[in-house]
Amino acid sequence: MAKLDSFQERFQGELQAELRELEAREQRRSLAEIHGTNLCSNDYLELSRHPALKEAVERAVRDAKHIGGTGSRLLSGHAAAWEQLEEEFAEFAGTEAALYFGSGYLANLGLLTALQKKDDLVFSDALNHASLIDGMRLSGARKIIYPHRDLNTLEGGLRKHAHERGRKLIVTESVFSMEGDIAPVTEIMKLAERYGAGVIVDEAHATGVQGPAGRGIAVRDGIAQQLAAAVHTCGKALASAGAFVCGSAALKEHLINHARTFIFSTAMPPYMGEQIRGAVGLARTMDRERAGLMAKARRLASGLRSGGWDTGRSETQIVPLIIGKNEAALSAAEHLQLQGFAARAVRPPTVPPGSARLRFSLTCGISDDELLRLENSLSNWREKLPSSAAVARV
Asked: Residue 169 forms beta bridges with which residues?
């Protein structure tokens, strides 16, 4: 009788085969420390290097009674400092209350699974983040995916299902992480009110950057208190960690009792609250940096479009350079890295097939000279391509 392969042998062989398949499709990812002019950071206000924020963290660690979470907040991890921070952040977000989660991913999973069941209906923008998609899937609710920012299709779906039982929610990012454009949240809210639905807005890439004092798109448009929930992450422009789900006091109590990613997660260490408080305080004062960041983004997008590049509908600090094929995007990223730029290719399934790209996340400290050098480096790369190589153009 032939000897059967052990599980471990089969298992390792299967994993290696799957990795080879990814490599054949130019979709295999790898970890690498970045070097050079950083074009893929979400540290939009460069608070991660701000001396005042470093001092706030050092002071918080020094004064902390303990530097571990010690347990979930429903067990030993709660502290009055978290309640106070949540009240302060709710005011920042323009809502009645807020609840802190350990990450934006956990916040979206916890929120959507706590609010939706199999008899409910969720309308989702086609380009929503994976954390929103996974939250919808885990909730068991029926999903209707509408084309990116397509209000006509969204309204058609709402009208078709208007008389069905069950809770209806529309879920969208405010600033889309791979496109750099902004959702028409006011128009979405009007549709929601017309058809008896609620709206959830993920402000991850708007927090600290968009809206008055960096308070987000919903505050900018005056609809924060009308939302079913807004999610503000702290790991991007606020240079911290975690996320707040913001909404009504009743929503907060509901999540404390139903959001599994909150109930069963160890609390973050208390000093993290002081880091977030310090970051929000700094971000509120950085109107000049925000204006400069947006001006740089507009100049870069305009310069690239003038050069025939496809930058989609970017209108924020995120400027995509849509190239098309995976291998071309990888080649462009490698070329820029050799020129001293930290740039990474973004490929399917993160973006739709045929839309591989470089995603330039600008920060307020990048110089105009570096942006001009970036444009020239891209032109040099394109000139060296063989005539048969297809690159997306406007």
From this structure: 122, 198
Tell me: the pLDDT tens digits for 316-326? 999 999 999 99
Which of 28-37, 186-195, 226-235 is the least confident region?
Answer: 28-37
- Stated as kind and residue range, the H or E segment containing 345 is strand 345-346
Q: Which pTM does this prediction carry?
A: 0.92
205 is catalytic: yes
Residue 2 and residue 4: Cα distance in Å, rounded? 6
Estimate to the nearest angstrom the gap between the alpha carbon of 303 and the chain centroid: 26
In Å, how far from its chain's centre is CA 31? 19
Residue 266 inside a domain? The answer is yes
Catalytic one among 236, 252, 289, 377? 236
Token code pair at residue 147: 């084309």
101: CATH: 3.40.640.10
pLDDT at residue 204 in the model: 98
Buried b (16+ CB within 10 A) or exposed e, 378-392: beebbeeeeeeeebb
What average pLDDT score do residues 304-333 get? 95
Q: Are both 274 and 305 inside the same structural domain?
A: no
Angle between helices 151-160 and 185-195 (to 10 degrees): 10
- Cα–Cα dist 344/330, whole Å: 8
SS3 101: strand
Residue 129 annotated to the active site: yes
177 in active site? yes
173, 181, 203, 289: the catalytic one is 173
CATH number where 374 lies? 3.90.1150.10
Q: Domain end: 265, 284, 303, which one?
A: 284
Please tell me the predicted confidence (pLDDT) of residue 4: 60
| 42: annotated active-site residue | yes
Query: What is the extent of the structural domain holding 267?
Result: 64-284
Q: Which of 129, 168, 252, 296 is catalytic?
A: 129
Q: Are residues 251 and 155 in the same domain?
A: yes
Token pair recorded at residue 351: 């973006």
